[in-house]
Amino acid sequence: MSFLTSLLNALPGAVAQGLIWGIMAIGVYITYRILDVADLTVDGSLATGGAVCVMLIRAGVSPWPALLCAMLAGMLAGLVTGLFHTKCGIPAILAGILTQLSLYSVNLRIMESKANQAVSVDKYDLLVSQRYVRELALNNPLPLLLIIVVASCLLPDAGKGVEFLLKPDFGKVDRNVFLNALGQSFYSMSIGMGCICTYASYFSRQTNLFKSALQISIIDLLVAVLAGLMIFPAAFSVGVSPDSGPSLIFITLPNVFNQAFASLPVLGWIISLLFYVLLSVAALTSLMSLHEVNTSFFYEELKIDRKKGATIVTVSCAIIGAFCSLSLGATDKLSFFGKALFDWFDFVTGQIFLPLAGFLTCLFLGWYVPKQIVQDEFTNWGTLKGRLFSIYLFLIKFVCPVLIFLVFLNQFGVFG
Questions:
Q1: How remote is the C-alpha of 149 from its chain's centroid?
Q2: Alpha-carbon 150 to chain mean position
Q3: Whole-angstrom Cα distance, residue 121 to residue 214?
Q4: In a 3-state reduction of DSSP, which class is residue 137?
Q5: How far apart are CA 47 and CA 65, in angstroms?
Q6: Per residue in 59-117, pLDDT tens?
Q7: Hey, how many other C-beta atoms are within 10 angstroms of the C-beta on 269?
Q8: Are 25 and 85 contacting, i.e. CB atoms less than 8 angstroms apart?
Q9: DSSP H helices in 34-91
Q10: How many CB atoms lie within 10 A of CB 258?
Q11: Residue range 269-319, pLDDT digits in tens
């Protein structure tokens, strides 16, 4: 087990290095196939660009100018190879090797004679840090997710599932598609649940809210794509409809894994176990985020001890969750008007409460809260420039309420 854990812990770093060397290989391929020149300069210039970029960032230069300087450094290395070949008459492959070998010393000089220079997420303004992807832990299910994605995409006819997920069908794009996507964004981005307000209240005034929102949006998109690549190829591999709704997870997917890995039952069992570990982690993290909203309400508004408030919330959620789980097939006595209890909770919270809360939040923020207070929050009390504030306020006052109202109407089939 320790060997498997060590292997999984090493996967993110190995994948990262593989991607970097893959970029270098593309550089060699382009020069050979397009320019018909076997140029190996990229073996050294790739590291040169990285060295230049890292040292400039450490010196306080913004990442974008640093990236531009790294590109120019790589171009200069290619120019040297070209001069060796055209002016000195050195064969192309040898000219590239000479530049490549010379760049090893140049790179060390740029890096102040060190093989590595650390760029810490605590000290520098980084978008992504390897700190968050290098360990296999409950707070980092990414390695498990990648393993299941790879296993799912290697199944027979998995390409149909990938095509279903990624190939656009513009013939089906209508207003309902956009309205459904807007509705899904409420749940996906935790809008209208109180999560954003609760956790934002814990931020310091120096927190860059725009950057945090951008990071969350990018990560949410990537995880959503990976989740799709995990489920749809496996579903298409065994001929299961991908639009089965919530029952797809609890009823259909166990059969999918059993059928997809029928020739290797042990592997199917392991993949199923990993999938439900991921699902449990996702449910647990979502539970904790929503748990804090209710706990903070008990603690801050009702003045109830935080431990007692957390206990009340936990017990209440456990009881409601147990009955919702039982309604998914264990008994038909928890169904009302043709819908299971789980589906009723999903309908009321997802299709009524979330749009309604978002709509009222926009009205409250755009028309009731004084403009100066909103601007202070948007600009972190003047620490940010806030150039987009006027656009933001216009969207909050006029655009977002209209769109949310349309989403609300679409949930009840007003638009057919």
A1: 15
A2: 17
A3: 17
A4: strand
A5: 17
A6: 888 778 888 898 899 889 888 888 888 888 888 888 888 888 888 888 888 888 887 77
A7: 13
A8: no
A9: 42-58, 63-86
A10: 14
A11: 777 777 777 777 777 777 777 888 888 888 888 889 888 988 999 899 889
